[in-house]
């Protein structure tokens, strides 16, 4: 194994451990809150900014708050829902399953993202590209990212 492989294993293991500590429910609700928050910021951000402009000056602060408030609100509400479900699973003695699924989910997402980052980084330098070609994990991570995103 090359030094790049060891770095990839450590990064991937760290992501999997992070998923283990958070649990699948909190991971899914966190990502869901971010997606819904961004959607709300796009959908109602401008109108909220206009409504806030009557109460807050300068107007650029009101416009910025009109975009930030929906994202933070969605993250907070989804985070509270995820926390509640997490606590319920622990009370039902299913916390171990939540953590195990969290580690698996984070490991899968981490592997795909590492593959994407490796593909994007190939143009940095010829030496880096050669190091990637010597790696044992590089072909598998790239193939996984291509499988997920449907690219060649």
How large is the share of residues in beta strands?
Answer: under 5%
Give Rg in angstroms.
Answer: 21 Å
The number of E-state strands comes to: 0
Largest sheet: none
N-end to C-end Cα span = 25 Å
Number of domains: 1
Can you tell me the overall shape?
A: flat
- Please state the structural category: mainly alpha
Approximate helicity band = over 70%
Order of helices and strands: HHHHHH
Number of DSSP helical runs: 6
Low-confidence stretches: none
Average pLDDT, rounded to a whole number, is 94
Describe this structure in words.
This protein has 152 residues and is mainly alpha-helical. The protein has one domain (3-147). 86% of the residues lie in helices and 0% in strands. It is flat. The model has no long low-confidence stretch (mean pLDDT 94).
Give the SSE map.
Layout: H1 3-22, H2 24-53, H3 59-91, H4 95-121, H5 126-134, H6 138-149
In short:
This protein is 86% helix and 0% strand. With 152 residues, the chain is an all-alpha fold. Helix 1 runs antiparallel to helix 4.
What labels would you give this structure?
152 residues, mainly alpha, 6 helices, 0% strand
